[in-house]
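> tool_call: predict_assembly(chains=two)
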Amino acid sequence: MVDDRTLNSLRKGVVEGVTLALVSDSEVYGRDLAARLVDLGLISSAGTMYPVLGRLREAGKVETTWEESLKGPPRRYYRLTTDGRDALESFAQGWEIISGGVRSVLDGRVNQSDVPDEGRKK
Amino acid sequence: MSMNVDDGSVERVYLDQIERAVAARDAEAAHQIRAEIAAHIAESRSDAEQRGEVTDIRDIIAEIGDPLVVAAEVPKKRYVTGPRPSSIGLFTQWDPMTYVWAVCLLIAIGSAFYFTGWALGLVMVWTSSLWTTRIKIWASALVPGVFLLAFLWFDFIFVAGYVVPVIVAVLLYFASSPVKARRRTLHG
């Protein structure tokens, strides 16, 4: 059972990067984006996506477009900017390093003998 | 799109709660996030109508989440005016609220020391972005203005020397952007 604090810390580290990845191929409708992030377990509720998008927009990584709908109000779509694409690239590289390291430890691939023991008393 | 009065008031109360909760962390972000969540609600209704479903505002609110949880995603900003209270190197790292208090104290009691504190306070006011130009002009002109009147026509040097600087200090306190931001947050 994962405790909320651990889960929130982990989410905070990756939610911006994953949001960038989700809007990287095409414009994504705001509600679909929120539903996708909730399904992935990266946000606890749809509303918590807006502060994340606000930060990304402020940093110039994501932009909002409005499209008229046949019925109802205009709809918001989100898409990646050039800066956002660079940030996504950087996130993907960082994630490779972090996830690989964590996975190797959790899978028990690193043996105790591989860990430097310079600090250990002899 | 149909919406009954009860739904409208539930939505308004919820959006007010969102705005207040976010403003407590970052006053500048509050309005934007409220607008986006209001748009989310309108889109939810419209999507449901297109599917021929009846929507309940409470279900949409449950999907969006607790205002405090939404606000917790907003990084806490101390003041809306930025981290540098003054362009003078000595003061750039000061907390804006501490800077406001220092200026107010210098202006209020500085006249007791041949107006050196008052003059230093004014220098701090003019090199800061925490006050508007209009307030800076008023703060600078009030004491000399009242002194001039006192010398020319009236005998109220005490008022000009001691009371007016205190009035100016109070004016500067309430007109400073950190205090205005705090008041906006407290009163929603």
